[in-house]
Write a structure and sequence with these properties.
- It contains 3 helices and 4 strands.
- It is α+β, with helices and mostly antiparallel strands.
- It has a domain of about 70 residues.
- A 4-stranded mixed sheet has the order 1-4-3-2.
- The longest helix is centred in the N-terminal third of the chain and has 7 residues.
């Protein structure tokens, strides 16, 4: 999934594609109208870009974390090479990668 705001900021071309969106317990949560092709890369040396397609939605979820976390938590994990260095600050989620990319992301 990718937000329409992110698609607009990146200038991605939206392909017409109607997709019903289904949540927990098979409850309908709307219809997405559009899909984009994306190339995602980490910016780290020797990382391979990953190609995927994402359904365009207005929003993915509420801001996460739901409130900014303390500096002590940030310092506890600051030695890790995380994709989001501001993981402790409340912010918008613009892209949700699917399970089909999991093995490619976590290669040894």
């Amino acid at each position: 999934l990718i937000t329409s705001d992110c698609v607009r900021r990146l200038g991605l071309n939206v392909m017409q594609h109607t997709t019903p969106l289904v949540g927990a317990l098979q409850s309908s949560i709307g219809v997405a109208n559009g899909m984009v092709s994306c190339v995602v890369s980490s910016g780290r040396p020797r990382s391979e870009p990953l190609m995927t397609q994402a359904v365009v939605v207005k929003s993915i979820c509420a801001n996460l974390p739901t409130c900014s976390l303390g500096e002590d938590l940030y310092l506890r994990f600051s030695h890790l090479d995380l994709a989001d260095r501001a993981f402790h600050v409340e912010g918008k989620i613009d892209l949700l990668l699917g399970a089909e990319l999991y093995a490619s992301i976590f290669q040894p």
